[in-house]
Amino acid sequence: MNQRNERLFRDLLIDCSYFVRHVSPLRQGLWLGTFVALLIGSYATSQDLVLLPHRWEIEPELDGSWSYPLRTAKLFQQPERITSGSQTRRVSEAQRAGLLSSFEIVEGRAETFEAMKSQLVNSPPTDRTEFLAFVSAVCRMADSDEAAWLWKAVQGQDLAIQLVVEQWATKVHSKEPLPSWRARLDDLESEGPGLMVAIEGLAEVGGSEDQQRLIAWITQEDTAVPVRLACCKSLGKQVHTGLENLATQIVTSNAPMRELLVAYLLAEHDSSAARQILLPLLQSSLAPATRLAYDNLARNDLALAYEHANDMLASGDHYVRLSAVNVLHQFDAVEDMRQQAVAIQDENPTVRRTVREHLIEKAQQDPGKFRGAVDEIVSYQLQGGSWQGIEQSILIAVRLEERERCPQLLALLEHTEPDVHIRAAWALQELANSPDIMQAIHEYCQGWTEKLDQGNLIEHKIILRLAYLLEALGRNKYQPAKEMLQLYVPKNSQKMNPITRTSAIWALGRIWEGSQNLELAKQLAQRMLDNDPIAPEADSVQYVSALALGYIGCKESIRPLNTAGPVPPLKLGHAAAWSLSQLGESSFLDSRRER
């Protein structure tokens, strides 16, 4: 569990209502503005997700502490409850011990563990539920050093309880249950979950003497398919050479799922004989078999994997397609890059994002060799490829700072797919800087601004798109947009929408930067300080209003800015402190830092 999630879980464990009571509307706005914009129309996650921040979120780049900090709370256990006279308390505390096992610091954890250990060793609970709660908690908390007494403690208990310890022993590579596992495998009539756990255990801690046990189950005619698969997987994990004859015997038999059996068996083999057996599996109708076979080739014979990469790009399994993309990326010919670029419009987001990152990497590492080809690929996609290819090409254009793409991006604002038109608007906010493009953006924004001003309801995806474009006007300090942007300042029952108002007010601040426009500063100060108990101003609007006052630079703004900063400082306080610093003033934040 990573640190941030651990902190979140800690707070929720102590007080589940904390999130509801303390997450501000501004942070909700951030989610709507960036997270929704990013994920709309898509449900997949990847390490290569690209965030689409609004400009006011990152400019100026304030300390992240303007967001509400997560509350820290001390986690603790009550070991005395383990020996309580109440069975409910004993079970509850054991369950809590298991729940908290993933956290690094828990007060009373060691004492609780020792209390449960003492109970299991010296006076085992007679109630099955209580015994199981203790054993489960101990398995979550213990390392392999505890295996001997724990395995002894569950002897005589039913198989379900023993299996809890056996599965834990497999994870910590303990050999304590090994005799029991071997006994189960020696009985060719064994069945059920106990047999499967034994097979898995042998994969982790078994020795060479266990190979024949597994082979006996594999070659027995009436062995169930799941058991045979588990045995092949276990044997293949243990043995990395010499199973080619057994694999040939299986692949030429009539055994169900024989191709997957062989793929598991030879997964770690690197001999040429093994590759010859695995090669036909690339055409298997069983996707896992193809995946294992191609992964083996990619690790052990890159040239052979390269020969089949084009066929693998057409596989119905996205893992296979991803492997093919990664194989092609290891070669430096332009044609190899073009070949993997076909997958930039893959239906699987991880595959297409991987291709995107590969193209960017090639273009940046050797522009003279690859940049022209990457530009051709991007142009082709933007001219009418699938929406998946277009979205990735937009992101490539931004990363490579291809401002010449702006006319194409303008055309994509009317694309039917939100993943495309929202990204196009964000990309224009990042790239647009020429007068003709700015004029086109202004005219586009005017049309939607008029609709909002007339009280029309506009879809959220269009609001997001419009917000990015308003920010583009601000980044470029586009003077003709002043009058239009002014329409977003009054609250007017939020008819202009808080998201677009936030972007427009930030843009006004940038356009009027250094102007000392007193009239506008007064209006923005009112927005910043509007805490009407019935209909308060949106948090995000208050925040950017404070920022805009710093951009505009009126000395008359010092007093309202000092009024705006709450203690302890929240997001508005940090914005006010930044603006005061732009006006040459210190703030309450400075005095707190000095202390």
Question: How would you sum up this structure, described in words?
Answer:
The chain has 35 helices and no strands. Among the domains are: 79-173; 308-400. The chain is mostly helical and 595 residues long. Mean pLDDT is 89; it is low at 1-47, 65-69 and 591-595. Helices cover 64% and strands 0% of the residues.
- Terminal CA distance reads 35 Å
Helix tally equals 35
For the sheet with most strands, the description reads: none
* Estimated share of beta-strand residues: under 5%
Give the tally of β-strands: 0
Structural class: mainly alpha
Helix content: 55-70%
Return residue spans where pLDDT drops below 50 for at least 5 consecutive residues: 1-47, 65-69, 591-595
Give a quick set of tags describing it:
single chain, 595 residues, mainly alpha, 35 helices, 0% strand, flat, disordered N terminus, disordered C terminus
How is the topology of this model organized?
Blueprint: H1 3-14, H2 18-22, H3 25-39, H4 55-58, H5 87-99, H6 109-122, H7 128-141, H8 147-153, H9 159-171, H10 178-186, H11 193-205, H12 211-219, H13 225-238, H14 244-251, H15 258-265, H16 272-278, H17 287-300, H18 302-307, H19 309-313, H20 318-329, H21 334-341, H22 349-365, H23 367-382, H24 387-399, H25 406-412, H26 418-431, H27 435-453, H28 460-475, H29 482-486, H30 498-511, H31 518-529, H32 539-552, H33 558-564, H34 571-582, H35 588-594
Helix pairs in contact: 5-7, 6-7, 7-9, 9-11, 10-11, 11-13, 12-13, 13-15, 14-15, 15-17, 17-20, 20-21, 20-22, 21-23, 22-23, 22-24, 23-24, 24-26, 25-26, 26-28, 27-28, 28-30, 30-32, 31-32, 32-34, 33-34
